[in-house]
Amino acid sequence: MSGLGHSNMSGFYTGDTRPLFNPNNQMELQQYPRRSKPSISPTLGELLKRVEDAQSDTSTYSTPVHHHHQVLQLGYACSSMPPSNPFVLSFNNLTYSVKVGPKMPFPVRGKADLSPGSSETARTKVLLNDISGEAREGEIMAVLGASGSGKSTLIDALADRIAKESLRGSVTLNGEVLESRLLKVISAYVMQDDLLFPMLTVEETLMFSAEFRLPRSLSRSKKKARVQALIDQLGLRNAANTVIGDEGHRGVSGGERRRVSIGIDIVHDPILLFLDEPTSGLDSTSAFMVVKVLQRIARSGSIVMLSVHQPSYRILTLLDRLIFLSHGQTVFGGSPESLPEFFGQFGHPIPENENRTEFALDLIRELEEAPDGTKTLVEFNKSWQTMNNPMNRTRNVSKLSLKDAISASISRGKLVSGAPNNSNLTSSVPTFANPLWTEMMVLSKRSLLNAKRMPELFGIRLGAVLVTGIILATVFYHLDNSPRGAQERLGFFAFAMSTTYYTCAESIPAFLQERYIFMRETAYNAYRRSSYVLAHSLISIPSLIVLSIAFAATTFWAVGLDGGFSGFLFFFFTILSAFWAGSSFVTFLSGVVSHVMLGFTVVVAILAYFLLFSGFFISRDRIPSYWLWFHYISLVKYPFEAALQNEFHDPAKCFVRGVQMFDTTPLSAVPLALKLKMLKSISSTLGMNITSNTCVVTGTDILRQQGITELSKWNCLWITIAWGFFFRILFYFALLLGSNNKRR
To answer: Fewer CB in 10 Å around end: N or C, the chain?
Structure first.
């Protein structure tokens, strides 16, 4: 199967024998005759199945030429399929409005396709006003209109991206209301922005999408064959091994990026395909090629609906049905061929050499600026629709029920993630194509591949940790066991633990870069949010282990910390737990905050508060009671106390002996002889013998002075690890609540 995409399917055959985007067939871009009726081509899955059958039939032959001819014959056989239109998507009386306050004195940016209110004091803004129409399998329906007319809003309404309680009207498929769960499985939505990983190649991007959307029952070779066929269908063969690219990395062109964005959402061969302005930002040739791909997708047995701002004449020849909107109202609905008749009867005939859509949009814009607006055009459209589109049209198109139509589609190889036929339609189609552990493996593989392609990200973080460790090792080099040495140890641990948290802040842009990719992929059940959280957590652990070893090995012996190798191991685990908790905390905040600079500001501020209440600057006993709660939620507190107990746990280790008690007082400057006299005087006053070698302060005394008496070092370690898990759980709920794509 590996050679399928390279030789046997150099083009995706759709009724004629010419492959799509064949370099030897460039006249297709210049010749665009109108067809009288769309023909239905086999689905991608059906074609692959036939190829597999052909391969099995010819497996006994040793001549590769015979195999090649067998596949070529399939291209001719495709055109003989009987046409059928089992799917009809109908929408009736769609109305959607939002509540707004009085107009602000300063401009507020909003979604481009939201039409303005009728007055400055309007409380309700109508975005869709009684929109009706239908789209059929094998056809492309385009929604046109000026900015603010409601194009994207209508596409969102049909794609179930508007909350049910906010949208009035009905959307049915073959006369049956679509459930949200079923719609997510049988449809795909392509956003206006190309949200792709820049360092993955085109083939890798589509392959990961196939791993998510295609069921585990399909072997990897079949998934790869499907991706190769899809690459040819999208006309991306020459760019298959090129990275997507971004501002800093040269990659594919804008038109190729758009086709990749379409490909990742149609890899499972959906029945319904919605696209929000797929041609925006593209030159005319690239836009034409994108719509040409959509035409082939529609002919393979899908309903394609898209919004487009102003299509060129060549693109217009590929569209089957048009809906013109003006401030949320339908001003025209019908085929492109009926535009001259419609506007001719309206009293504004289209000039012979004029672009029909440009003329229509210009006229609509002129009417919008008139006192009565487009009211006359809206009313004329209603009467024209009544005369030219009888109400029984839908009933004559498809007599198949939704269940039978989907079952027939699945049997023909469409909707690859669908399940076998079942009496209960909703239960027969799985919510997710793969189990949780499979999703985790694919997500982990993709993240590791991205990290491998951009090693500088981890390299910079490792370098920052090493530089910080070297600076601390040289500043606190070989601390002694004097009173000053004990105080310097406290400062070292406080700075070291806070540093582990601050270095985690560098990972804020990582998820924010993936945020919208994640929202797009999970909106239509490519994988579970829980799979993403678990995979995100697992792949972060190896890097945290490397960072912890680097920091601990750089500082432990250079500073002269206590405990030997066992002490080093506990210090390493303490650093690792701090990195884990800090990484989890920053990950959670990146799921809540959507802006990089705002995220950095919040993280730095909160970590500063954690350090303030950790117990280093002010001990627990001295913190005011109304701030004591912050001490216990401080993430720095627990690894700081664990490291201190690991260092000062030995009661036999002395840090202040005899005259050293004066070292941290103004008496430290007096001569030694005078210190010894004062020591004798203190001894006689207290009634005990204190010599210059008598231990005055041990490690346990230092812990007591710092108020570290409640938890053992192991408890502090487990609590730090638990904080990490707690923030990962919060991250999951942040994704669950914050990644809702539906409008309210």
So the answer is: C
